[in-house]
Amino acid sequence: MSIDGTYDVVVKSPMGERKSVLTVQSAGDRFTGTNAGDAGSFDVSGAVSGNTLTWQQKITTPMPMTLDMTATIEGDTITGSAKAGAFGSFPLSGQRTG
Q1: Is 98 within 8 Å of 8 (Cβ atoms)?
Q2: What is the largest CA-CA distance in the chain?
Q3: pTM given for the model
């Protein structure tokens, strides 16, 4: 099954659930897309290994930092983590919507 699509995603952080919509368009071992939510809308791109995506995402709210994102897609389910440097790693989960 293709990893391409649109996913409703939730990252559970100490600041509560951070919801976003992740779109993915893969091409070989790379992907591009967007991740849009309450922290803004970001163009994203990164690596594809099998059904796992990895990328870095710079955010500005609630404070400027770079997140190391990992997401594995199995069927219509997406799971992974958002690593926020010294703040640790937070679980990511969601479902394909399109």
Answers
A1: no
A2: 37
A3: 0.91
Q: What single-letter amino acid sits at 5?
A: G
Amino acid letter, residue 47: A
DSSP character string of 14-32: TTEEEEEEEEEEEETTEEE
The answer to whether the bond into 64 is cis (omega within 30° of 0) is no
Three-class DSSP category at 52: strand
| Nearest residue to 38 (alpha-carbon basis) of 55, 68, 69, 13 | 13
Over residues 32-91, the pLDDT tens digits come to: 999 999 878 999 999 999 999 999 998 877 778 899 999 999 999 999 999 988 889 999
Q: Which residue is it, tokens 């479902």?
A: 95
